[in-house]
């Protein structure tokens, strides 16, 4: 075999080995990085990507007549935290962005963190799983307005968070629709609900 051809084949073999190693290194890095945040690479579109239709509250005619409906379409009572609802309204429709922290794009933990900082002046951990350290865990039956709701992925690890409102509704940054309102008793959320959390 001519030396030139041999060198060419050797170069191709080395390049292939480098690319394979590089791809594996990148995959390993991304997997490690994402596992430390909300998702693992292999589950991002399998377990955590939830294609859903946002829940639309339907207040009663009486509540509408009396002006007892907020901008989210939720019936309001005297004891409701209007600042919480106003803060959430300002984020509605913000697209989901993994790692995003502002109204150009926000992930679930950053959305909850921003609302908590604005409404309650409380700084939370940045990662969904770590926010458990900031709260006392409670059951679904104990949930009250403003509590944090935690959801797990197929491995049983907390991978998503939202803010409980009332009547089974919660606000969150969903992977498919951005900041929306959903119901705890809907399919995916009912199956993957873990605990509530109260600071």
User: Quick one: CATH class of the largest domain?
Assistant: Alpha Beta
SSE topology string: HHHHEEHEEEEEHE
Structural class: alpha+beta
User: How many structural domains can be distinguished in the coordinates?
Assistant: 2
First-last Cα distance = 73 Å
How large is the count of helical segments? 6
Nearest-integer average pLDDT: 82
Based on the model shown, name its key terms.
globular, 6 helices, 6-stranded antiparallel sheet, endopeptidase fold (from Nostoc punctiforme), 199 residues, 36% helix, two-stranded antiparallel sheet, single chain, alpha+beta
What is the strand and helix layout of this fold?
Elements (H helix, E strand, L loop, with lengths): L2 H33 L8 H5 L12 H5 L16 H10 L9 E2 L2 E2 L1 H13 L15 E3 L9 E5 L5 E7 L4 E6 L3 E6 L3 H6 E6 L1
Antiparallel strand pairs: 1-2, 3-8, 4-5, 4-8, 5-6, 6-7
Helix pairs in contact: 4-5
